[in-house]
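Weekly structure sync, notes
Attendees: PL (lead), two postdocs, one rotation student
Agenda item 3: pending single-chain targets
PL asked that the sequence for the first pending target be pasted directly into the notes so everyone works from the same version. It is reproduced below exactly as submitted, 436 residues in total.
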Amino acid sequence: MTAVDTWISDFSARQGQLPGAGLPWLDAMRKRAIERFAAEGWPTTRLEDWRHTSLAPLEQASFDTQARPQDVSETVRALIGDDTGHWLVFVDGRYEPGLSRLGTLAAGVRLGTVADALAHEADLVQEAFGSETDGSSISALNLALTCDGAFVHLARGVVLEETVHVVFVSSGERAASFPRNLYVAESGAQGNIVEHYVGRDGNVTLTNTVTRVQVASDARLSHTRLQQEANQAFHLGSVEAEQEGKSYFASHSVSLGARIARHDIATHFGGQRAESLLNGVYFADGQRHVDHHTLIGHAQPNCVSNEHYRGILADRGRGVFRGRILVAPGADGTDAIQRNDSLLLSKLARSDSRPELEIYAEDVRCTHGATVGQLSEDSLFYLMARGLDRTHARNVLVYAFVLASLARIEPEPVRRRASHAVRALMPGANMLGELA
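Predicted structure, written out during the meeting:
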């Protein structure tokens, strides 16, 4: 049985028990999704979008969608700490109400799970669910096998004061999970959502996650992904956003774990004067591999997009970035900036960067660029001359390299979390915290 056949068999055995089973539109969509995956299989390096990222190690591994979950209560308590906000916790893709802390919700805020929404508000879910044609065959497999995910719906004009935290813990041996998250902000609504991905050290797991975002006119939504899974894990993530006129959407990707981490992030402007921020920090050491592929679709006039990704690559770590800005005919007044900067900390580290502009309009202002470099010996000498040893001087420069991207993360408590996660990877983290 091939790696593709395994997932087809899993779907055949469980399709009647998946959430939403019996809904004609969803049953038909799931069937088309698994058929697409059967036809296309896992993406290979023969595809242009996957030329630098091989999933061969994933195909050679075995996973279990029914793995027995382990006790992760201590992990979750440590993660939440004394933080406020609304917390939804999923373990191996399934909602755990005993570990969650929803808190008090304002009128007009729906916060819960996709499985529950399918049971009680299927029409609302259908509008945001997407289809089997979205994204790659990986997204199609997610649609076919998804069991649950976070469902956040902000009614017209609602301002969600506290942050929504969605936690996904990979706990079981060889566990495979397929979360599908749906976030909808109606006209004038505002909110902040953070997705946390964590796992147990030494455990080989698969997380295939899709997040669908709809931001209506005049709405503002900030979305942050903190990916801190075990170094042996596989993480395949996709964010698909749709923005209407005068909306604002910010996507922050902080990728610090997993053997192979792939992040596909796309937003499309469906109305004028929309604005987006795509921002990221990534770190790969050992033989780990992290890949960001982005697409910003400027289909309407007078829209603004800013894109900034910074990567730290050590040992034999490899970072891949391919960003595409597509300016359609008639999208005059487009203002787009795209940058990718990588810092190599060893001779064997590698960065592959390909920023792209595809422009079919004339009255636009678009810039893009990429840099790959090493730490400056002059800067190291300067810090060491002022009392720092070489290790601490090196870490100060590395941390300073990603500070600009971390500073863009809002709100401030989320920025603190992301900054702490980056500093924790370096010796002398306490000293770096004091300097920060």
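Discussion points:
- The chain has a mean pLDDT of 95.
- The first helix runs from residue 3 to 14.
Action: rotation student to compare against the earlier draft before next sync.
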